[in-house]
Amino acid sequence: MDTAESAAETSAAPNVQDEAIRITDMHKSFGALEVLKGVSLTAHKGDVVAIIGGSGSGKSTCLRCINFLETPSAGQIVINGEEVKMRADGTPADRRQIERIRTKLGMVFQSFNLWTHRTLLENVIEVPIYVLKIPREEAIERAKVLLDRVGLADKADTFPSFLSGGQQQRAAIARALAVNPSVMLFDEPTSALDPELVGEVLTVIRDLAAEGRTMLLVTHEMKFAREVATHVVYLFEGRIEEQGPPAELFGNPKSARLQQFLKSVG
Fold first, then answer.
1. What's the farthest any 2 CA atoms get from each other in the chain?
2. pLDDT of 4
3. Helix 195-210 crosses helix 165-177 at what angle (to 10 degrees)?
4. What domains sit in the chain, N to C, each tagged with a CATH number?
5. How far, in Å, CA of 253 to CA of 148, rounded?
6. pTM
7. Rounded CA gap, 99 and 112, in Å?
């Protein structure tokens, strides 16, 4: 093989070192109900992957399997080039590995999941201090910067119950960022919000995307997905029906199911 051919093959090969997350043939069943039926997708560093689909399509389950909030039934998961050690039934073979990997995955849930008996500042510093063993003063300074970044600098000593849903979700984003994650996972972060509060949360996520953060985002906000995502995955009944750049999926969907879905949410 001459040098030109070798260079061409090298450039055409996928850059595995650039992969932030790769899942291959992932399955998940709850008893007799098979929710994921062989999902494979890759997010490279800096990608914003939007996962869309109807209710019950497996979107949230897919995201929760990535950080083992749900245990996959089968498949392969690779995070930042490190394969998660799994037994034949999908359960993790090394709990310490899971705990370590989780510290690099920032998770934002639908329902905020803030500790209601702690102030926003205390919510943000909890994991850095007690899990990552960061000195308290350093964690506090970092938390103040993050709360300011999401527009909540003046709410550091406020308890979640005194805040709007949008403010609580922005605080949850600050908490997820406090571990300096390599990947952010968003599970329908605006679905529990009143319509007038959705924009303030999407603005924060848009800013994170502009920074080049790697994100997997389960969302029903189609306009946002089209504008912010670098790659869109459409799930239907536990399988990837169609995926590709947002301009293609939203502008020229090939699947009849995706066409119908976009009409129904349009």
1. 68
2. 47
3. 20
4. 18-104+214-266 (3.40.50.300)
5. 40
6. 0.90
7. 21
Q: Specify whether the backbone of 164 is left (phi greater than 0), alpha (psi in -120 to 50) or beta.
A: beta
Report pLDDT for 13. Answer: 47
pLDDT in tens, 131-149: 999 999 999 999 999 999 9
Average pLDDT for residues 228-251, to the nearest whole number?
97
Residue type, 40: S
Beta strands in 45-179 (DSSP E): 48-53, 74-79, 82-83, 105-108
Helix (H) or strand (E) holding 27: strand 19-30
DSSP H or E run through 10: helix 3-12
A 10 A CB-CB count for 194 gives 10
72-113 confidence digits (pLDDT tens): 999 999 999 999 999 988 889 999 999 999 989 999 998 888
User: Over 60: is that where the pLDDT of 255 sits?
Assistant: yes
Handedness of CA 169, 173, 176, 179 (dihedral sign): negative
- Residues in contact with 27: Cβ distance below 8 Å, sequence separation at least 6, in sequence order: 34, 36, 37, 38, 39, 72, 73, 74, 75, 90
- What letter does residue 62 receive in the DSSP assignment? H
**Nearest-angstrom CA–CA distance, 148 and 248:** 37
The predicted structure's pLDDT at residue 3: 45
